[in-house]
Amino acid sequence: MAPVERRLSAVWNRRSRVDARLWILSAALLVIAVALWVGYAAALPVYLGPSLLWWAYAIAFFVASRLASMDSPRRGTQAITLAAAPFVVGLFHATPLALLAGYALGVTAAAATRRPLAIRQTVFEIIRFAVFAGIGIWAFRAIAGSPELPVWRSAFAAIAATAITVSRRVISEGVVLRPRERGSWTDLANHMRAAYVAAAASMCIGLIAVRLIPVDRYALVPLAVVTLTVLMTHRAWVRERYDHEAAEFLIGAVDALAGRELEPSILLLLNRARDIFHADIAQLTVFPSQAAEKAFRTTVRHGHPDEVMIPLSLGELDDVLEAETAGVIVRAGEPGDPSSDVLSRRGVSEAMVALLRGESRMIGSLMVGGHLDARTFDSRDLRLFRTLAIRTTAILENSRMERSIARLTELQEQLTHQAYHDSLTDLANRSLFGQQIDQALRRSAEGTASVAVIFLDIDDFKGVNDTLGHAAGDALLVEVAARIRVCLRRPDTAARLGGDEFALLIEGVDSAIEAEHVARRVLDVLRDPFTVSGTSVTVRASLGIAVADSADANAASLMRHADVAMYVAKGAGRNRYVLFSPGMESDVVDRRKLRGELERAMELDQFILHYQPVVNLITGEITAVEALVRWHHPLRGIVAPGDFIGVAEESGLIMQLGQFVLRTACATTLQFQKLQSTPLAVCVNVSVVQLNSPTFVEDVLGIVQETGLAPETLILELTESMFVEDTAIVTAKLEALRTAGIRVAIDDFGTGYSSLSYLRRLPVDILKIAKPFVDDLASGAEEDFTRAIVTIADALQLHVIAEGIEAAMQVTRLLSLGCLAGQGYHLCHPLPGNEIEQLLRHGGIDRNRLESEPDRSEHLAPLRVLG
Q1: Euclidean distance between CA atoms 12 and 40, whole angstroms
Q2: What is the CA 344 to chain-centroid distance, rounded?
Q3: Which residues is 822 bridged to in the sheet?
Q4: Which strand (E) or helix (H) includes residue 184?
Q5: Ramachandran quadrant class, 637 (left: phi over 0; alpha: psi -120 to 50; beta: rest)
Q6: pLDDT at 11 (0 to 100)
Q7: CA 283, CA 4: separation in Å to the nearest integer?
Q8: Residue 188: what pLDDT?
């Protein structure tokens, strides 16, 4: 249900509840009235003779009701009647039953002469009068006492009884009928004050009549003439004031519509219309002048926010088209009248409606409905409303309105486009993309082809924003979107889901291979550098592919699977695509859970460093230590980096973690260096994410300067895969570091993209022989690869370190090949900082350990495996 319909339904339900409360209160008051009259008032005789006939009171109450005036020309103000006069007379010169019968007959006759008939209100009014009149009669008899008592006492008793009777208005207006909104109780107090003033004047007339009746009944005639003359004069004054206010209202309405802007003008007009008629709602609908345009509806309602120029299709128009052009009063609940249903949908019991018919076409419709008081619309209201409709039609029928409607239609189309498209790239947004997937799935269900969804996330996009600024980042996203469009066919859809995340919808897919072709094309078109703010930027992306493989596939599941596959692509090293397969979701859930734990671990400082010595294979002296991060998990104990580094890289936490490792390693090594005379270096592994950071060089140099470590004792370890792409950028960064004195090592050399050409160009100082080649030395296999690496390093004047030494034989053969440094479990396991300090004080590794296999029963600290 639309928000407007919900609000209208709520109003209708609230009014229904008011009617229900009215009937419940009527039943309760009826019980009280029967008890009062049967048990007390019905048996009372006339208080003071002579007694007037009951029909005289019926005539008096009829005249008082029909000749009611208003205390103000505005709708909803308090009616002034003479009803208190016959009531006061009846207290003295009628039996209570005669007084009640006269009131009931007179009020019923007055209601029957009005249109529309208000049967429920009349019945409620008679019951209400019966209760309070009964209480008033009891109060009068109790205070006045015997007729022989002083006159002032009976007069005071009549005043009290009249006040009690007038207070019956509080029950209906304050408890049931009046809305529970701010200011309503203030209005009620004002109305009650006016009611008491009117009752006091009428009561004085009644007391005069009481004094005249025993003396000369015919004297009542001039009293009645004078009273009616005053009342009719007041009615004439109120009518004149009403006409004056109506004229001012019409002039104000014309001025309102003559404003420059259509929307504020209509809003001002409707608020004034609702105010002058004391109505609940005012509504103006402007019909389209051309087939391509929309209709627009403006609604102002008591207690609700204004709805200005809400666009409607022709199918949504439900205005009262059956109404007379000049205007007519329509009431809800009338059988067979479609206009009645329209009012019911708006929660309005009565309304004045008019069609705004111009010279050449129907311009729109105007409606004013509902009541904030107990009155209904009458002929006087309808005349004013018709005049308003005619003037509104005349003013709206001009070129300004036509231009405004055309502008609003164009604006609505723009807003609709903006609601479903990304404002930066003009690609579809997430909402439209989901709808497009559902539509594509419905089309594919009718044929044999399937649907594929590709999620794309730019790798390390945050670095562009951080270094070049958000404006440059936005410009890059626009260029990426343009290149993605090139990869798509006409029926396919590209979307930006937010941030640096894009999505592609591929229709008519016969197999997953076709979707993979599209993914490869996207990677290819993104490979060429972008020029942003005069800077060349290389973009890499991770793509996830999901293909609809069942009839019950939907947009949500396809997008979730593509998102999971993209997440796996990031974990697999980025700059690639991954096709979703069953089981991936659970893996991704585990990795995301691990990511959350890593974030908490960073906050709680749960990461520590162990250090593995790099040893001179001849002397056993420690020449360097390699810093290795460990996660001290509160439940799992010491967690090796292989279990969490990949997730840290995916999430970007590797940047924060890498800075922690470098800062801690530099500070700790500075303490190690104090324990031996020869220089001691520290090796720190660098992630590809760190290396790709635009601020990588500044971050490293800043930490070195902060900790006070000599730059020449810091060795940064990189893998060969980091040099395959963006060689020029990587080279520039490493040259800047080497200029500052920092050395660079290639870790696991020989297992990746080994090339003499790039090795000659790169600013590298150390080659670390990969463990598989060192393992071959222990098994007696060929040592050609190891020999080649040593020979290349010697030719290029690079230092060589062997990794993964686990046997004395490997030490012997490495020395024979010319490799003089190494690390591995045979020499020393990774140790906490305090145990490394003990080893340095000991002078390094015992030479006996280098030349022979250790006794496995020994428990030497340098060899102990911790955690």
Answers
A1: 41
A2: 31
A3: 615, 802
A4: helix 184-212
A5: left
A6: 43
A7: 13
A8: 58
Is residue 718 within 8 A of residue 691, CB to CB? The reply is yes
pLDDT of 71: 45
DSSP sequence for 852-865: SPPPTT---GGGPP
pLDDT at 28: 84
Is the separation of the CB atoms in 778 and 807 below 8 Å?
yes
d(CA 748, CA 740): 25
Contact status, residue 502 vs residue 480, Cβ threshold 8 Å: yes
Q: 10 Å Cβ neighbour count for 785?
A: 16
Pairwise CA distance, residues 763 & 745, whole Å? 9
How are strands ordered across the β-sheet holding 450-458?
A: 493-498, 501-509, 450-458, 541-547, 576-579
For tokens 């991060």, name the residue.
629
Residues in the chain: 867
DSSP states along 573-606? TSSEEEE--TTHHHHHHHHHHHHHHHHHHHHTT-
* pLDDT confidence of residue 860: 42
Dihedral sign, CA of 579, 580, 585, 587? negative
- Compute the distance between CA of residue 457 and CA of residue 477 in angstroms, rounded to an integer: 11
CA distance 682 to 709: 10
Distance in angstroms (rounded) separating the CA atoms of residues 34 and 135: 12
What is the predicted pLDDT for the residue at 177?
46
Q: Over the chain (867 residues), what is each successive 10-residue block's mean pLDDT?
A: 44 50 77 88 85 82 72 50 81 88 88 71 84 88 84 83 75 49 54 69 78 70 70 65 64 62 78 84 83 79 85 69 70 68 78 83 85 75 84 69 56 64 87 88 80 89 79 90 87 88 89 90 90 83 87 82 87 83 76 83 90 93 94 86 81 88 94 89 91 88 94 90 69 90 88 64 87 81 81 89 91 91 92 92 83 54 39
β strands within 332-462, DSSP E:
350-357, 362-369, 450-458
The one-letter amino acid at 251: I
Asked if 346 and 8 count as a contact pair (C-beta separation under 8 A), the reply is: yes
Q: DSSP assignment of 794-861, as one string?
A: HHTT-EEEE----SHHHHHHHHHHT--EE-STTT---B-HHHHHHHHHHTSS-HHHHHSPPPTT---G
With CA atoms as reference, report the closest residue to 399 among 358, 338, 352, 459. 358
Rounded-to-integer distance, Cα 703 and Cα 740, Å? 13
| pLDDT for res 2 | 45
- Strand, coil or helix: 454: strand
pTM for this one?
0.46
Of 315, 308, 255, nearest to 283 by C-alpha is 308
Closest CA to 69 of 239, 241, 188: 239
The pLDDT value given to residue 230 = 67
Three-state SS string across 610-671, please? EEEEEEECCCCCEEEEEEEEEEEECCCEEECHHHCHHHHHHHCHHHHHHHHHHHHHHHHHHH
Task: Copy the structure tokens of residue 304.
Answer: 């609700």
Rounded Cα–Cα distance for residues 144 and 160 (Å): 10
**φ/ψ of residue 801, rounded to 5:** -130, 130
d(C-alpha 267, C-alpha 248), whole Å = 18
User: What letter would DSSP give residue 675?
Assistant: G
| CA pair distance 516, 577, nearest whole angstrom | 8
Distances in Å between the alpha carbon of 644 and those of 379, 596, 717, 720? 83, 11, 19, 21
Do the beta carbons of residue 56 and residue 95 sit within 8 Å? no
Is there a contact between 381 and 371 (Cβ–Cβ < 8 Å)? no
Tokens describing residue 400 = 């300004």
Cα–Cα distances in Å, from 484 out to 493, 519, 538?
A: 10, 10, 15
The span from the CA of 106 to the CA of 55, in Å, is 9
> Does residue 89 contact residue 209 with C-beta atoms inside 8 Å?
yes
